[in-house]
């Protein structure tokens, strides 16, 4: 009674607050021990370890986030014995700042589509995390429910999966792109040489799908990236065509001017035919999503014939990165059997000042007769 006692508690973390109570007993523990009352509560905080950092682990070890999104990363530090270390300085860095940035607290922001490595360093030891930034909406679809699948083209080949290919004033090929947002690593590359005349296209990639049905309602989506350099003088560049049975068409166009650009539509049948808007372009009437070179964009197009032939309740809609850009609801369509063909004719309205490129990833088509 009254004698001082000391003890050592094992397994405590450094720089951590703990509380303890003691109790007196007589007899043998786990046999016949009789316990007294608990003591008062004693509080204390363990000291900071002076052991050097031996390892750094970044959590999460890998992550995918959309352009513009943020995600918090954390670094775990341990000594050579595996004990958790706290209170040490950590420096954060990104090896690809155009794609992803990271602040001093480990908050990562997606900037452009592509890969980046995030590194945390403390006392000469480092850990990394692999980050993939995906364009915009990450491919979330605005496809209407109940549509019938027509075709999927992951672009692992040119003349396959129901598609056809023809070289014109340039050419196209299949390239490897590990950062392709939908179906890596193969993508379609369209090459615009400096020898290509004005108002010509390098190549044509198309699919004829009116067998056995023509389609009165069509949804198409694809990922697209304009290369750098890119010359959009004069009237810009045609992107994709949707052909109707009678030879009429709608096409998407990358609108000319000084970057950033945007995506519009041109309707080539009466009563329109290059007469709506500036130079025949139907510009976005909801939101205008800016388009710059070197970044993947998710483009969705939706076309629907009027309820009755000759009616004026047809629809033209398009989205960029999941954001509705154009929404036209009182459209007159031609008096024909419906849509029959989709193509990428990538026509450039000016001879390129330098060899230029357009890239296409996964293309999806669906519809209703």
Low-confidence stretches: none
Order of helices and strands: EEEEEEEEEEEEEEEEEEEEEEEEEEEEE
Largest sheet, described in full? 8 strands, antiparallel
Count the E strands.
29
Question: What is the CATH C-level name of the largest domain?
Answer: Mainly Beta
How many structural domains in the coordinates?
2
Q: How big a fraction of the residues is strand?
A: over 45%
Total number of helical segments? 0
The chain-level mean pLDDT equals: 84
What's the CATH topology name of the largest domain? Jelly Rolls
Overall structural class, as computed from helix and strand content, comes to: mainly beta
Shape category: elongated
Radius of gyration over C-alpha positions, nearest whole angstrom: 31 Å
N/C terminus separation: 95 Å
What is the level-2 CATH architecture name of the largest domain? Sandwich
Helix content: under 10%
Write the layout of secondary structure elements.
Blueprint (H helix, E strand, L loop, with lengths): L16 E4 L2 E4 L7 E5 L3 E4 L9 E5 L2 E5 L3 E3 L1 E5 L5 E2 L5 E4 L5 E3 L4 E4 L3 E9 L2 E10 L13 E6 L10 E4 L3 E6 L9 E7 L10 E6 L8 E10 L10 E8 L4 E6 L8 E5 L13 E2 L13 E9 L9 E7 L2 E9 L7 E6 L11 E13 L1
